Amino acid sequence: MSLKKENNTAERELSISRLLNAPRDLVWEVWTNPEHIKLWWGPAGFTNTIASMDVKPGGEWDFIMHGPDGTNYKNKHIYKKVVKPEKLVLDHITAPKFTMTVTFEELGDKTMVTIHSLFESAEQLREVIKVFKADEGMTQNVDRLEAYVRAQIKLRKQSKTTNMSRTSTYLNFSNNTEQAFLFYKSVFKTEFGGKGIQRLGDIPPSNGQPSLSDEDKKLILHIELPILGGHVLMGTDAPESMGFKLNFGNNCHICLEPDSRKEAKRLFDALSEGGNITMPLEDMFFGAYFGEFTDKFGVQWMVSCTSKD
């Protein structure tokens, strides 16, 4: 973190850079999809309610940040420039007013993110640092981004090892996936498939990324269990300590795994018509042609294709 010392705007600038061990398309996604950014934005302990997020020039990002002490902070940005997946420029039009520029530099399979804020005056910047600890908050915000991106890499990567078509049900739990799946195993009297029980702690931490707590290391990264008629239950833990917020009703998806990209697109387009697409169907960093949506009847779906055809 540094107050920049260049040009005549030096005393009005606050910036931070962080090299994330994640591909640029993922980092861009968690910055521009409200379902993602609401889970990590802000200093430690803050949560968010997003009213609107229209990522295009002239579009609004309107939201409320909820402080850990219960204080609500109204925020509104206007997007000035959107260059996917390279740059975002936003004007923060609620007090304190400033312009935020976020750049995403692709460095192999990693991404250098730089957040730069230009305030209206040096006095204003000094005030937000004194009153709101803006410099500390910016660092905590990037810490949360880094942890969230790391969790997404782990939680999204599935263990399917063939391209055969199948339908499964994907379940999310806050911290009791193992308990649930041991129960289902006892009922259906089957054995865990894929790579067995995979835990968050099984994956070595990357340099510079926050360490998981001992408790989080015990949580489930991925597990799958065949039940009846070849149907598979899959599951993962998505704890609040890693920025997730689960409610009954948003923790279950029907997961379709067709054997071709053509069929994946057909199913995605047909089922999502009239519904709400939460993640467009596209090539993802974990090697799948993947998308998510809620259909017009309120049912949540995933489509995931690992075939290159």
Explain what you see.
With 309 residues, the chain is an alpha+beta fold. The chain has 2 domains: 7-154, START domain (Alpha-D-Glucose-1,6-Bisphosphate, Chain A, domain 4); 159-305, 2,3-Dihydroxybiphenyl 1,2-Dioxygenase, domain 1 (Roll), CATH 3.10.180. Helices cover 24% and strands 35% of the residues. The protein has helices spanning 24-32, 34-37, 122-132, 134-156, 177-188, 214-217, 261-272; strands spanning 13-20, 47-53, 60-66, 72-83, 87-92, 98-107, 110-119, 166-173, 198-199, 220-226, 232-237, 252-257, 276-283, 289-294, 300-305. The strands form 2 sheets. The chain has an 8-stranded mixed sheet with strand order 9-10-11-8-12-15-14-13, covered by helices on one side. A 7-stranded antiparallel sheet has the order 1-7-6-5-4-3-2. Strand 14 and strand 15 (300-305) form a beta hairpin. It is globular, with a radius of gyration of 21 Å.
* Helicity range: 10-25%
SS-based class: alpha+beta
Shape: globular
Mean pLDDT across the residues is 86
**Strand ordering within the main sheet:** 9-10-11-8-12-15-14-13
The total count of strands amounts to 15
Main sheet makeup: 8 strands, mixed
In brief, what are we looking at here?
By secondary structure, the chain is α+β, with helices and mostly antiparallel strands. The protein is built from seven helices and 15 strands.
